[in-house]
Amino acid sequence: SMGQAGAVAAQPGARWWAGYLAVWAVCAGLLGAEAIEAAPRDVHALLALVPAPSWKCLGLYTAFLVWLVALGAALPGFRQEGVKLRDGTRRVYKCNGVMVHLVTCAAFVVAAVIGLVPGELAADQFWTLFATVSLFALILSCILLVRGRARRTKNWFRSESLLHDFIGGAELNPEFFGLDLKFFAYRPAMTGWQIINLSFLMKQYAELGAVQPRMAMYQILTALYILDYYANERKVIFMWDIIAEHFGLMLVWGDLAFITFLFALQNHFLLHDATHLDGRHAILCVTVALSGYILFQGANTQKHRFKMNPSAPIWGRPPVVIGGRLLASGFWGLARKINYLGDLLIAVSFSLPCGSTSAWAYFYFIYLLLLLLHREMRDNAECARKHGSVWSEYCRVVPSRIVPMVY
């Protein structure tokens, strides 16, 4: 999916290194020259600039999680069967994310309008919330490690080392009173991102007296993206993260903290930006976002339909299939990872409203670019090992990796 899945796509070692660079880069960009001078020579000085977790934020975040769980249980939803696991079983997921998301956002807006909660709270407490949720993710990962190694449930596939199980996860599908934690984690991630966006929107309105065009553009593009994620929730069940990734720190922190907060960084640069957004710039933002969406969603839809019915026509023609398994027509005839290009275009469209205010406003796009380049190389090596001469033939038919005729 989505960029939100991109955040957790690399191997554990690469993720930890990228994660350190990401946190330092964000702190340096948003906290100024002090942070740049502090890292990496003096990590303690850098950490001193970051707010400490708070009990208040922990209470707010816990209430948010409980709300999402209760709403997900109470509202009706479509039940989708997942892929067959190695033990022969299939999990059944309740997909009602659209309703849960819309009701949650509506409740937040109403509560802010009537004065029940300060609408700017998430924006004002951004970094304290980030620190609190990061600590929450760390503690949850420790609990999952202990529980997973103790229980060794039927979906326990391997245990390589204590550190690996902590970072990469000890269980594939850990549950808490029947709640699938891995599937659920995307809800506080994506809806949390939307709540933070709305909080910054309200803060700008309170401080400047109006929502500025650049902020409005960012809000519209990201709101549609998040809503589209929930609209395609049934497809999310077939993502690699859900199918094969164990639920450890890299996914727990990646979902709860990375997606929620670091995807929302553009708000910091747009909050006090009242500069004019001319028509050409607005058209560029929309065109890039739309192009990315067509590539990303179109490619994923074609692959999903191909898996369901391998003989179904693509763009009005019989599908080109290499070795009986590898689709090489439609979007997938343009590049082997054409969906990555769509993901990258969507990511950069979220930053384009910031203009040239700061390179840090493009943090998410740059991070995702490096991450997907690494993932493509890793996947290419794995597919070459797995498919052998069939993969070589596939690469001959579809020579481009991500960008048609360029890379």
Shape: globular
* Rg for CA atoms: 22 Å
How can the largest sheet be summarized?
2 strands, antiparallel
Percent of sequence in beta strands: 5-15%
Taking the alpha carbons of the first and last residues, their distance comes to: 21 Å
Number of strands: 6
Mean pLDDT: 84
Give the fraction of residues assigned to helices: 55-70%
Supply the number of helical segments: 19
pLDDT < 50 runs, ≥5 residues:
1-18, 27-41
Instruction: List the secondary-structure elements in sequence, H or E.
Output: HHHHHEEHHHHEEHHHHHHHEEHHH
**Spatial strand sequence of the major β-sheet:** 1-2
Structure class: mainly alpha
Brief overview:
65% of the residues lie in helices and 5% in strands. By secondary structure, the chain is mainly α. A hairpin with a 3-residue loop joins strand 5 and strand 6.
Secondary-structure blueprint:
Blueprint lengths: L1 H5 L5 H20 L1 H6 L4 H6 L6 H20 L3 E7 L5 E6 L1 H17 L7 H4 L1 H26 L10 H7 L6 E2 L2 E2 H28 L4 H19 L1 H4 L3 H4 L5 H14 L3 H5 L8 H30 L12 E2 L3 E2 L10 H14 L11 H25 L1 H9 L10
Antiparallel strand pairs: 1-2, 3-4, 5-6
Helix pairs in contact: 5-8, 6-10, 8-9, 8-14, 10-11, 10-14, 16-17, 17-18, 18-19
Key traits:
globular, 6 strands, 5% strand, mainly alpha
